[in-house]
């Protein structure tokens, strides 16, 4: 589910291995601060959910009577959409304070596992609420058709957006950000929780103030730590996943690895383990070579590189712990991180890392919608056979079962990643056009006539250019972009800097190797 939400839903900007519910929140709270160099867990916060001594209500997810969230809150405008539901701005009737309400449709919770995941996430959010750098949980309300989770409203937006918008950046600024991220890991582990999905999009800002607190969001893949238990399910997001997860034998040390990947990105703008395919990313992670030679690394301090090396140690038993990271000379308060500005190319890389995939996904969907019957021969029958409940959409369970019937060799992780990649509108299921987009071979989708057709879809006035207004119209039609995203796309794709995208720039973007989509066959 998830933490605070900014005014826009995070785009699918890297390959996801697991589909998790995305939930959101925010209201600016003061937090107690200890005299330690890092934030100690709040001893007064609830350590575990309050036991329910009454008999659980049958056929409910939360095990209690239905409650109408509207009795306590006035539901306002939509803030964003995720895999399992919609997040709204809401106002507490008794105080007038603003929060976020994540409304999760029960129709999306198909399996028993789905329901248990939502229940566990709510328990973990309640357990962690009150800690610094972690989103505040206000309450959960289950009705006949939905589960509504009310939480803090993070009005400051996404962490990387703030970094890019400031335009100036230093090792000291990166250290301050990383300190808050690792503090989240420290608190989680101290309180018996493994996050399992740390990535930049899961950190938002409590307000628009310059000194706003960074808040961890989305505990959809988090679990309570059971000492001695070895986890084997592959979860997380590809760029940030630890090698022991890929080997299917891991513990809480994976969170330090993910935080180390984030720190690497904070200092150079791209992930340390990079490839054009998911398999390539995984292979790079397992090899574990860290590039400290390319720009800007020669100008980055040895102390910063020392910390990254210790966080990205292959052997989890030898990997640095959260408390050790927080005491590292480069990271700790008043440490030796330099205030010298970092190479401006880092911010440009970071921006590109975030912006491109959205436009490419939308363009592929436009192409798929206009393919001839000959080009998609056989795919319609395949879709119909997988859609066993004849709902017109394919759920994760239907996709997995259908692929097994077809003798597919895709792993569970690859099926989950495919589901995430194919689900363009982020509603948790794949419709027919999304299915065609995911299953067609890329060389067929990217033929010249198809690219030109997609370009014409965006170029509404046939001027030969895609303008900002035309891009905004197209992306809003699919609920896929806001002002910042559209501005970033224009900036990154428009190589001749004339403020618009011509056909050559469009084709170059579509054929670039960045985050290529996997195909089923």
UniProtKB/TrEMBL annotation:
Cited SUPFAM superfamilies: EF-hand, Protein kinase-like (PK-like)
Binding site for ATP: 102
InterPro entries linked to this entry: CDPK_Ser/Thr_kinases, EF-hand-dom_pair, EF_Hand_1_Ca_BS, EF_hand_dom, Kinase-like_dom_sf, Prot_kinase_dom, Protein_kinase_ATP_BS, Ser/Thr_kinase_AS
CDD domains assigned: EFh (cd00051), EFh_PI-PLC (cd15898), STKc_CAMK (cd05117)
Span of the signal peptide: none
Chain segments carrying region Disordered: 25-54
Protein kinase domain sequence ranges: 73-331
Segments forming domain EF-hand: 374-409, 410-445, 446-480, 481-516
Keyword Repeat: yes
Classification via Pfam families: EF-hand_7, Pkinase
UniProt feature, compositional bias: Basic residues: 25-34
Record's keyword terms, sorted: ATP-binding, Calcium, Kinase, Lipoprotein, Metal-binding, Myristate, Nucleotide-binding, Phosphoprotein, Repeat, Serine/threonine-protein kinase, Transferase
Catalytic reaction(s) noted: L-threonyl-[protein] + ATP = O-phospho-L-threonyl-[protein] + ADP + H(+); L-seryl-[protein] + ATP = O-phospho-L-seryl-[protein] + ADP + H(+)
Protein family (similarity comment): Belongs to the protein kinase superfamily. CAMK Ser/Thr protein kinase family. CaMK subfamily.
Entry-linked PANTHER family: SERINE/THREONINE-PROTEIN KINASE
Listed name of the protein: non-specific serine/threonine protein kinase
């Amino acid at each position: 589910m998830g933490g605070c939400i900014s005014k826009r839903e995070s785009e699918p900007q890297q390959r996801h291995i697991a589909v998790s519910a995305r939930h959101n929140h925010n209201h600016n709270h003061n937090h107690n601060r200890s005299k330690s160099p890092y934030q100690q867990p709040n001893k007064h916060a609830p350590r575990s959910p309050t036991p329910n001594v009454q008999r659980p209500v049958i056929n409910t997810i939360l095990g209690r009577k239905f409650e109408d969230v509207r009795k306590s809150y006035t539901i306002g405008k939509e803030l964003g959409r995720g895999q399992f539901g919609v997040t709204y701005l809401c106002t507490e009737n008794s105080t007038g304070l603003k929060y976020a309400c994540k409304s999760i449709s029960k129709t999306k919770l198909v399996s028993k596992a789905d329901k248990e995941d939502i229940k566990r996430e709510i328990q973990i959010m309640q357990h962690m609420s009150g800690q610094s750098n972690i989103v505040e949980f206000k309450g959960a309300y289950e009705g006949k058709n939905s589960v509504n989770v009310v939480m803090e409203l993070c009005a400051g937006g996404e962490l990387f957006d703030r970094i890019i918008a400031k335009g100036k950046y230093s090792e000291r600024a990166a250290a301050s950000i990383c300190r808050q991220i690792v503090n989240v890991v420290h608190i989680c582990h101290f309180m018996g929780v493994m996050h399992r999905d740390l990535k930049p999009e899961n950190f938002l800002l409590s307000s628009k103030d310059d000194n706003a607190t960074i808040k961890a969001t989305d505990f959809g893949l988090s679990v309570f730590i059971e000492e001695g238990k070895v986890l084997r399910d592959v979860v997380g997001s590809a760029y940030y996943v630890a090698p022991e997860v890929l080997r299917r034998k891991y513990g809480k040390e994976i969170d330090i690895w993910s935080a180390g990947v984030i720190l690497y990105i904070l200092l150079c703008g791209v992930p340390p383990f990079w490839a054009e395919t998911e398999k390539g990313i995984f292979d790079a992670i397992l090899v574990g070579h860290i590039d400290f030679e390319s720009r800007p690394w020669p100008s980055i301090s040895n102390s910063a590189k020392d910390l990254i090396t210790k966080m990205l140690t292959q052997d989890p038993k030898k990997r640095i712990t959260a408390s050790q990271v927080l005491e590292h000379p480069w990271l700790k308060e008043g440490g030796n991180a330099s205030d010298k500005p970092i190479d401006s190319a880092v911010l440009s890389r970071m921006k590109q890392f975030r912006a491109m995939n959205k436009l490419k996904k939308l363009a592929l969907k436009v192409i798929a919608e206009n393919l001839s019957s000959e080009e998609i021969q056989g795919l319609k029958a395949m879709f119909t056979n997988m859609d066993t409940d004849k709902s017109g959409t394919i759920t994760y369970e239907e996709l997995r079962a259908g692929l097994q019937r077809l003798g597919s060799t895709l792993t569970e992780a690859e099926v989950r990643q495919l589901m995430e990649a194919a689900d363009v509108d982020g509603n948790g299921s794949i419709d027919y056009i999304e299915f065609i987009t995911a299953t067609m071979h890329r060389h067929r989708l990217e033929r010249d006539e198809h690219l030109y057709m997609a370009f014409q879809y965006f170029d509404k006035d046939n001027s030969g250019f895609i303008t900002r207004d035309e891009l905004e119209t197209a992306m809003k039609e699919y609920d896929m972009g806001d002002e910042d995203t559209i501005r970033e796309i224009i900036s990154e794709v428009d190589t001749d800097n004339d403020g618009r995208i011509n056909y050559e720039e469009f084709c170059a973007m579509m054929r670039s190797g960045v985050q290529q989509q996997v195909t089923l066959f």
